[in-house]
Design goal:
The chain is of the alpha/beta class. It is 57% helix and 12% strand. Helix 1 packs antiparallel against helix 9, helix 3 packs parallel to helix 4 and helix 5 packs parallel to helix 6.
């Protein structure tokens, strides 16, 4: 009797290969050995440019982690980007304003920004009042962000996370006040609005790669590379299966293997 159900054999081996790739890449990255290069992401490279512009103009940086809940994967990805942005702001003595919609996200962003200033040796420069909870209502939050941007006139507006119908409202006001804007979301329906209005846009999975891309942490880098390999393998299986099903429908060995 097999230990695994027949339908779980193929997923088991594929998952095992994925874990092996993750461990291999993490080990190589930790030892300083060569690992595959990560493709350049202009939106993430532009973060320092945006913060530098705000520093030169003596104006703050506005950051929104989106309106997703704390357990939303896009919100989690935004936390990684926020940590990098906050450290850069602390390094350059630039004010950062974070606007939150979800109550549970508020203390997390407070701690991320506070730790960033502590790590840069400037705990006294941290201003708790700049990490603001506005409203848990979607459009009340959007209105609050609009008011903040019009009053504070940030030189950079960074919108990374889960955004829905409020995306264009917030991005349009950022454009009107002349802020350099970097936005990103995995909600594909909102991407056209960000592309139309913002200077740089992170598309889909690019926001999930932000933590590894910005920090170059070996564990995150190894995981990111292995994920990309997994996606390429999945695409290869789909293409190969399509070719086999189209030209040799009787040779269904790939389908039989994946059904095991």
């Amino acid at each position: 009797m097999s230990i695994l159900e027949k339908s779980m054999v193929a997923p088991f081996w594929l998952q095992l290969c994925y874990f092996a790739a993750v461990i291999l890449m993490i080990g190589r990255a930790k030892r300083g050995l060569k690992v595959p290069e990560v493709q350049k992401v202009p939106g993430l490279d532009a973060l320092e440019e945006a913060i530098g512009r705000a520093t030169e103009m003596g104006r703050p940086v506005f950051y929104s982690p989106g309106i997703g809940a704390v357990n939303n994967s896009q919100t989690m990805a935004s936390f990684a980007a926020l940590g990098h942005v906050a450290r850069q702001c602390a390094r350059y003595d630039t004010a950062i304003i974070v606007a939150n919609r979800i109550p549970f996200v508020q203390p997390i962003t407070e701690e991320i920004v506070r730790q960033a200033f502590v790590q840069e040796g400037k705990p006294e420069a941290y201003v708790a009042e700049n990490i603001r909870f506005l409203s848990d209502d979607q459009f009340a939050y959007a209105s609050g962000c609009v008011g903040l941007m019009l009053r504070e006139r940030p030189a950079a507006s960074i919108l990374i996370g889960g955004f829905w119908a409020e995306s264009l409202v917030m991005a349009e006001v950022g454009s009107q006040i002349g802020a350099i804007q970097i936005a990103g979301t995995a909600n594909t329906a909102q991407l056209p609005f960000f592309v139309a209005v913002c200077d740089y846009c992170l598309i889909g999975d690019e926001i999930y790669a932000a933590g590894a891309y910005l920090s170059r942490d070996p564990v995150l880098m190894g995981n990111l590379i292995a994920q990309d390999w997994g996606k390429m393998l999945g695409i290869a299986i789909v293409v190969l299966g399509s070719i086999i099903a189209t030209f040799t429908p009787q040779a269904n060995w790939l389908v039989d293997f994946l059904k095991k």
